Structure formats: structure tokens, C-alpha cells
Amino acid sequence: MSLFLIPLTGHDNAITLSKEGVCLVNSLDVKRSKPVSPIIASIPHGSSQITPEMLASKKPEIVLSNNDWFLNELYSFLERLNITTVSADYSRYVIDVNREISLNNRAEDYTKSLVYQKSTFGRDLYDIPLSEETILNRIETIIFDNAS
Hints:
Layout: E1 2-4, E2 8-11, E3 14-19, E4 22-23, E5 28-31, E6 40-43, H1 52-57, H2 71-74, H3 77-80, E7 84-88, H4 132-144
Parallel strand pairs: 6-7
Antiparallel strand pairs: 1-6, 2-3, 3-4, 5-7
InterPro entries: N-FG_amidohydro
């Protein structure tokens, strides 16, 4: 887990994180502390959820074993310390929000790719590699929220 500071803005019932025009509404769960804390805990791999598109296209025998199970539960004590938490709503296998957006290529090494093509054990996740369109769609809908 890493800690970072980022400006929080709230609009009525919605909380958005903004940094240089990037809006991450769909991909994050923000639990805002009360009173507001100057510390924000980042839990970038706090979910094992995958998208219907990924479920339909991944090999059925592939087990996504390198999810960080129960991280949100493990760090739930942060709420009692009045620390805001930011957690990803999707598995790192869908899109790794802890990677540079520029790493949107289809690198063989998962540590150098925003959208994984292989498991952390080097096994192909898909019978047919993801198209550039699918990769860009994940980036647009999950990171930038331009689907609406």
C-alpha cells in the first residue's frame, strides 16, 4: 500500500479525484474521512472484480490468482483513524491503476503493461490477444470515464 496526497473535490453526492483534468469516477471507491484528513491511503489493487468483456474473452481455465484478496478489509482500520482511502473497483487484471497510462502496450511482461495480456505466472489470459481497440476502450471507460 502506498500513501499519497491529492486534492479531493466533492460535488453534492459525488466525490471525484482530479489531477490535471483526469477524472477517475468509475474506477475508484473513495471513502472520505470525517473530519477531512490530509492523508489519503491508496489501495490500488483492492478488488478482484472483472468486467463482462474480460469474463467473456479470457480463457475459462485461467485463474486470476494474483489478486490482492481482502486488502480493503485488511486496511479498514484506516477509517477509524480518519484517513481517506482510495481503492480500485476493478482487478489489476482488467487494468492496473498502479501503472503509468503510457504503458498501454501489449508487453509480454505484466509489470510493464497497463492492461495485462498474461497472468503473473506468464500464461496467456486470452486465446486471442486483446485488440488495441479493447485496450483503449478499457482505458477510456475505466480511467478517464469518457463512456458517458
